UniProtKB/TrEMBL annotation:
PANTHER family: OCTANOYL-[GCVH]:PROTEIN N-OCTANOYLTRANSFERASE, OCTANOYLTRANSFERASE LIPM-RELATED. This is Lipoate--protein ligase family protein. Keywords: Ligase. Signal peptide: none annotated. InterPro entries: aa-tRNA-synth_II/BPL/LPL (IPR045864), BPL_LPL_catalytic (IPR004143), Octanoyltrans_LipM/LipL (IPR050664). It comes from Saccharolobus solfataricus (Sulfolobus solfataricus). The lineage of its organism: Archaea, Thermoproteota, Thermoprotei, Sulfolobales, Sulfolobaceae. One of its GO terms (molecular function) is ligase activity.
Length: 364
């Protein structure tokens, strides 16, 4: 299998969405041709908060400070998991397979994170790094790498993956001026103080990376795992046109605020608003609009989980509309039936996924 290399240095933060856009367009048939592709990004033009596709922007970031400190809000396209703060010191990468390569997302994580990414950071000098399933690499309890994988299957099956790590020493204060980090996210972590949770290759490795080292380490790890050589190329004209089209969507307020407590409450004026959250392997949050008879009129499930296929949360929430707070078993059976289609929730079981909905419904 031949894999091409696309390399970006000091790029616009939105370039981190390039892999998901190309994958989505290819899976739907909009993009006619696309080879297996490795995308490597070393540093970005400005700091940015990279929101998961399912995250509530109002709960994840301090919106006033985003403007004050000139930080860009970027939301992933069709890819879940947690909010990431990235800056000029961050290295990012993505890989796209426009055909079936892995049995499921769990195998994809084990190979792309547990082998490729782990080999990469070890080659960069972090010899004591370890893979923590499903999607972390940690060193001495600290999160060294964040990752996410999605499997799209519309007209054609496509696997795409994003990962990041701090290459150089980060600003120790700026992320906490921007991010809202709920204590639930650290409930199962070895390190309890969020300010101690970040790591970097320069801090935790045995040398300071030079520009280009991250690219070379990734190319080496990918070549080894997939037994191939990589050649640096450019986007095709067709890919460039599709990227420009979706870039306008990615930068729109409608997309950035697609999950927002404020917009949910405004949309459901006249109904009672309730909220609950619970930390499983991943954090699951539920916002509800209830009528006077405790009947669910609208529901928004948010958090740092992953879903296969993307937008599965919308299929699940449709099954909950018009149920009452006493209908948990009805809801569970509906969701379990839906999941028989081969769907996956990464970070919680189907029953756990809807539990915060009924916690909120009952006022817990």
């Amino acid at each position: 299998m031949n894999i091409r290399l696309l390399y970006f240095e000091g790029a616009d933060p939105q370039i981190f969405n390039l892999a998901s856009i190309l994958s989505y367009a290819y899976s739907t048939g909009e993009l006619k041709e696309m080879p297996p592709t490795l995308i490597v990004m070393e540093g970005f033009s400005r700091p940015f908060s990279y929101l998961g596709y399912y995250q509530d922007v109002d709960k994840e970031v301090k919106l006033d400070n985003v403007t004050k400190y000139n930080v860009e809000l970027v939301r992933r396209w069709k890819l879940g998991m947690g909010n990431i703060f990235m800056d000029k010191i961050t290295g990012g990468w993505a890989i796209i397979f426009p055909q079936k390569v892995f049995k499921n997302s769990a195998e994809a994580y084990d190979i792309l994170v547990g082998k490729v990414f782990l080999d990469t950071v070890k080659n960069l000098g972090v010899t004591n790094a370890e893979y923590v399933s499903p999607n972390d690499i940690r060193v001495k309890g600290k999160k060294l790498c964040g990752t996410g994988v999605s499997i799209l299957n519309d007209k054609r099956e496509v696997v795409f993956f994003n990962g990041f790590t701090n290459l150089w020493k980060p600003d120790p204060e700026l992320p906490f001026k921007i991010l809202n980090i709920p204590p639930e996210k650290f409930a199962d972590k070895a390190i309890k103080k969020p300010e101690e949770y970040f790591a970097a290759i320069e801090i935790d490795g045995n040398s300071t990376p030079k520009l280009g080292d991250f690219r070379e380490a990734l190319v080496k790890a990918v070549s080894k795992e997939f037994n191939t050589k990589l050649e640096t190329e450019e986007l095709s004209d067709e890919e460039e046109n599709i990227w420009r089209k979706y870039l306008n969507i990615l930068k729109s307020e409608e997309f950035i605020f697609r999950r927002s407590t404020g917009k949910f409450i405004t949309k459901n004026r006249g109904y009672e608003y309730r909220f609950a959250q619970k930390k499983y392997r991943k954090l699951v949050q539920a916002s509800l609009a209830l009528d006077d008879n405790n009947r669910i009129k609208d529901v928004m499930i948010t958090g740092d989980f992953g879903l296969v296929p993307p937008d599965l949360d919308e299929d699940i929430t449709k099954e909950l509309i018009e149920l009452t707070c006493d209908d948990f078993e009805v809801a569970k059976n509906r969701v379990l039936k839906l999941m028989k289609n081969g769907y996956e929730i990464i970070g919680a079981s189907p029953e756990e996924f809807i539990t915060p909905v009924f916690m909120a419904c009952s006022g817990y």
